[in-house]
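Example record for the data management plan.
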Amino acid sequence: MKIDTSGWKEFKLNELFKISGSKTTPKKELEKCGVGNYPYITTQAVYNGIAGYYSKWTEKGKCLTVDSAVLGTCFYQEKDFSASDHVEILRPNFAINKEIGLFLSIIINRIGFINGYAYDKKRSQTALKNESIFLPVDKSGNPDWEYMENTIKATEQKIINIIKKYEFKRSFINNKLLYKDFKLGDLFKIKSNPQLNKNSFEFLDGGEYPYFTRTVYNNGILGYVKYLDEEHKIKGNSIAVGLIAMQFFYMEKDFYAGQFTKTIYPRFDNFNKNIAHYFIAILN
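Corresponding structural encoding:
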């Protein structure tokens, strides 16, 4: 869906939300309470930040959470929840629902990616209070919440239609194929990357080599750099993974990498982009 952003207006996050920390609840404390229906939100960048469901909650839902430890990832939390350390809360100063929350989290995550938040540049409460985002506006110049809600609903319906087609094809294929368990280490050679901080590189708009990091956006690529040396260059036609978010990406070209990343290389012949994406779908 193509969206015209030419008429959007800038808003400070501090104007839209009350920004605060959350109460830190150790996982062992929740385990004593037992399994339940309330999400436990952590700093992980996948699965909406959820690392289990327990019978205790400390924070009211219908808000946004932001990881202030690593990547600064933002999620909408519909349900009441508890949280680990370094989980910040954006409590809306307006009526919010799931669709509006999802729209805002997409915009906030995009800004986070542009700002390059990482382990050494945290998305703290202070950083959040200084951030601004662009949003669609109504005739009065206020955020157009109805437009945001309708946009997400339309997008969700497209995704639902795609999933229905995929499930039909998968059902057909599964009736014709046999499956068997394999260990990843039997199929791939897993190697730690020769890693360098981004300050070691010169980033260029037309840089030849991708610089792979732990980000979950843009195929894990923070930017493109000029040639550095053979010692740190990593062979392409492989699958790279950041060890915090644990998101796998296909790297077609030779590349360089940041800290806490690994690469897996096939132990079999005829590996290519299509086969790689099949494995990535399973691994992720």
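Summary line stored alongside the record: The radius of gyration is 21 Å.
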